[in-house]
Design a protein that fits this description.
Layout: E1 18-24, E2 30-36, H1 44-55, E3 62-63, E4 65-71, E5 74-80, H2 87-92, H3 101-120, E6 134-136, E7 142-145, H4 168-173, H5 178-194, H6 200-208, H7 226-239, H8 250-258, H9 268-272, H10 289-296, H11 299-309, H12 323-328, H13 330-345, H14 349-362, H15 368-380, H16 384-397, H17 402-414, H18 418-438
Parallel strand pairs: 3-7
Antiparallel strand pairs: 1-2, 2-5, 4-5, 6-7
Length: about 450
């Protein structure tokens, strides 16, 4: 793997401890590759565990993790590439026009939604949240970089910015907490208000002196109401409270920011005045029947195909069982499978979920097909997040099984993540074509 200074995309430069490069996969997809300092993760197991946990997250509010690599001294994270620069670029170093008020409000909301999603999935800590961590996708929508969800190193000491912007408690403990993430969110709201990177202490002095209009970006004059400005300043000051327990949580941030949104019907790329991303080339691919069914979200057709294929794709999956397991647990496990398959065949998907869950939780056998069947059962029950988790687990067990990718695409589409769904569908189609060439 070659790393060129010409391909560095992070504003922190080549000498930073963790540099981000732009790269290209074999299928032509653009990715962002974060290369860690050699000493950051000496234990590959810890690195892999962290990466796997972050990789389980999938949201249209995140620049999602695609994979990781550890070989020799290399520790790499690979994520979706966001082609339209960072919030820092659009706020502090804009060329043609400043960011519009409606777009600044949208950035704040989408960022709060990203933090709420991560918190709901057990990843409430975000390391060194700042304007360089907010990226814009091909449609101009802001996304939070997944890289900050993973510690910069095993010690978790992750604030690399000017200490004037770090939460007060971090100075005492050296640790990131959910409340310190909210504090950092408050500094980002100040960035959005002012178009500058103002130290929180200075901003709070202006707010206490009721001079909050001095905080506002002069480029926005006449483009926002005093009530909206006051409300956003009030929200920032709540986030910047000295005592962590007095700060709001991510859910309340989303609630407060939702009511402030303006021009909600206008696409982000129009508000940002940037060209819209190229449509996916998935239409040019020759889809298999399962790929086509997942593309259309035709759950009935998916069910028919999975039922017909059965368990033939489980062949070759290693299942090591002791004699004790055979005698004590196998009959119960096989009964769970039998009842689950019967319910699945009869389209009783709620019952299928229950029995398949018993089989999976039993832990005596590994079956990617079982995860695929429970995935579809979740989709039939309008539980797309659980469905996505099962499709991803099937991929972990069988990394080159196209069915796992197709079902991920269906779950992503159910979650409204159209671009990610199309890319995953493309991955599955390429894998299937590769398998057919081998055969």
């Amino acid at each position: 793997m070659r790393f060129s200074a010409d391909h560095i995309v992070s504003e922190h430069g080549e000498k930073a401890p963790n540099v981000v490069y732009r790269g290209t996969l074999d299928d032509g997809r653009q990715v962002a590759v974060k290369r860690f300092n050699k000493s950051a993760w000496p234990d590959t197991r810890q690195f892999l565990e962290e990466a796997r946990a972050v990789g389980q997250l999938r949201s249209e509010r995140l620049a999602n993790l695609i994979g990781c690599c550890f070989e020799g001294d290399e520790r790499l994270l690979v994520a979706e590439f966001m082609p339209n620069e960072t919030l820092a670029k659009h706020l502090f170093h804009w060329d043609s026009q400043p960011m519009k008020w409606a777009m600044r409000l949208r950035v704040a909301l989408y960022l709060a939604q990203a933090l709420e999603y991560c918190s709901s999935r057990g990843r409430a800590l975000y390391h060194d949240l700042n304007a360089y961590r907010v990226l814009f996708d091909q449609d101009g929508n802001p996304r939070l970089s997944c890289f900050g969800l993973m510690k910069n190193s095993r010690d978790g000491k992750s604030y690399s910015t000017n200490l004037a912007f770090t939460p007060p408690e971090y100075m005492r403990t050296g640790r990131v907490t959910p409340e310190s993430v909210v504090y950092s969110f408050g500094t980002l709201v100040l960035d959005l208000l002012s178009g500058k990177h103002i130290p929180p202490s200075h901003a709070l002095d202006l707010i206490r002196g009721k001079n909050f209009l001095m905080l506002m970006d002069s480029c926005l004059e006449g483009h926002f109401s005093n009530d909206d400005g006051t409300e956003l300043v009030r929200l920032a000051s709540r986030c910047l409270q000295h005592e962590p327990r007095e700060r709001p949580n991510a859910k309340s941030l989303v609630t407060a920011l939702t009511s402030l949104q303006k021009e909600t019907e206008v696409p982000s790329y129009e508000l940002m005045n940037i060209p819209r991303g190229n449509p996916s080339s998935i239409q040019q691919l020759s889809l298999t029947p399962l790929g086509e069914a997942c593309s259309r979200m035709d759950l009935t057709a998916i069910h028919e195909i999975l039922d017909k294929v059965g368990y033939k794709d489980d062949e070759g999956i290693a299942n090591e069982l002791s004699f004790q397991m055979w005698t004590d647990q196998m009959q119960e496990t096989l009964n769970s499978k039998k009842h689950g398959d019967s319910a699945f065949r009869g389209k009783d998907f709620t019952t299928a979920i229950d029995y398949y869950t018993q089989f999976i939780d039993g832990g005596t056998m590994i079956s990617p097909t079982m995860f695929a069947r429970r995935c579809l059962s979740y989709l039939m029950n309008d539980m797309p997040q659980q469905a996505l988790g099962d499709a991803m687990q099937a991929q972990v067990i069988s990394p080159e099984w196209s069915t796992a990718y197709y079902l991920q695409a269906a779950a992503l589409r159910a979650l409204g993540m159209e671009t990610d769904a199309q890319e995953t569908l493309k991955d599955g189609t390429l894998l299937e074509a590769k398998k057919n060439r081998r055969n």
